């Protein structure tokens, strides 16, 4: 059995460094933070025995990833879930990204493709200088023109399904139809020379360097991309790996990108020679293979999209070796249920408030694995976000819900005979268990909920299309790296963000008061004042009750006996960071 040491680091919350680069003036030159591991081949464990770090890997070999969900898209402008974002880090590089120090718990924004950046006095013009010796997979250099093309391609309505932060921040981007419709491009994105690019935001955007750390900022060579959808079918890698083979629904094979320059990359350790993603496996099969850890599965990682199922938790906890190779992920997502306010019944404030009171959140928590894996939450901001104030507007004893109060409120609102609603849910076991808990809880208040179980890979495409959205939908908002209320609240609750596709405002919530408050907060130049304002907006939103906050979930991901470099990275939605895992002994 592998030796293990204990270290009580995982109990500490993530400490994010001061947002120095977002304060407006001056030039920021992020330090290169290459990864050399922690100097140990032994497992480092939390006080509870979970794996905090599985030891330093060596270069070489192939890591297998066992998953039950195919990837939504290889286009970094499209994918939004944590699993596909983790894949993007292997394939693509962005202007900025985050390093995470497992020993201190500190996360820092650094340059990925960018060597440095600076802003004018009021944070309305941001200038980025690219590094030298950065290349696409065919060996062609990455230039400022490629960055401009990549951003303008990502603004095309047919692909802008992922993060909308660039669209909201860059002047004129909200109305731009993409580079294939308007070949002149945006005047607000100016190429100064091969290595220098300038972005104009119109209004002050204090956190613009953080926005450029999102996948839609991925550059692509204009002379190789002819249609908006081409990247989804034929990705062009700039990261340490490229796609060698893809069999839809079955297997994805990555191989080294020989033109990736490790000396320029402070983000990705890239120990493995390649990755083999096995797709659409049954959840029970994944758990059983990972728990047994036999043969090639000693080199395997369990995907976060299909974490250890609650039904197997007791068996794992009874085996110290299994616990010692299981990473408890960092909760960086608020799981919630959205009310589709396009439904006239749900456009009624008293109905939405009644549904908040009705829900037995403890039953939803138990469906997600109980207290060991999930904490109940009552608002839309993560506890680690600066400025957040804790509150609970719809308090019930033990978070068990109050169906009698809810039924009374529904009757007062004109629904003496209750309600009939549909709920969209992803066809993953834990998600469906949570949805069934909601269904049973609401039934006690006279609300009949019919579940609409959707394909896991296309789930966000469906609920991101208002015309296909049901009355209720379970989803989550994740704050990766940039821990700010803007990430958590703006796209989900600003009325101007409602779109025909790629919509993240799943409640169709459009409040003039909230819209104005969000606009004012986004334009603030002082980060502390901005954080305090988002905390106030968080409460405003919950008073309007367009959602029911549910849980902060810490998934469990198992790795094989021979897998090193596994740890929960808050910058990867709290999941195991694929770009740091490798094999302890590639020859085994």
Brief summary of the model shown:
This protein is 24% helix and 21% strand. The chain has 588 residues and is of the alpha+beta class.
Describe this entry's structure for a reader:
- The protein is α+β, with helices and mostly antiparallel strands and 588 residues long.
- The chain has two domains: 4-237 and 558-583, Periplasmic binding protein-like II (D-Maltodextrin-Binding Protein, domain 2, 3-Layer(aba) Sandwich); 333-553, Roll (Dipeptide-binding Protein, domain 3).
- 24% of the residues lie in helices and 21% in strands.
- It has a six-stranded mixed β-sheet, sandwiched between helices.
- The protein is globular.
- Mean pLDDT is 90; it is low at 1-34.
Could you say which structural class the secondary elements and strand pairing correspond to?
alpha+beta
How much β-strand is present in the residues?
15-25%
Contiguous helical run count = 16
> Can you say what the CATH homologous superfamily of the largest domain is?
Periplasmic binding protein-like II
Describe the main β-sheet briefly: 6 strands, mixed
CATH architecture of the largest domain: 3-Layer(aba) Sandwich
Quaternary state of the chains: single chain
**Average pLDDT:** 90
Distance between the termini: 15 Å
- Write down the CATH class of the largest domain: Alpha Beta
- Which geometry do the CA atoms define? globular
- Estimate nothing, just give the exact number of structural domains: 2
Share of helix, binned? 10-25%
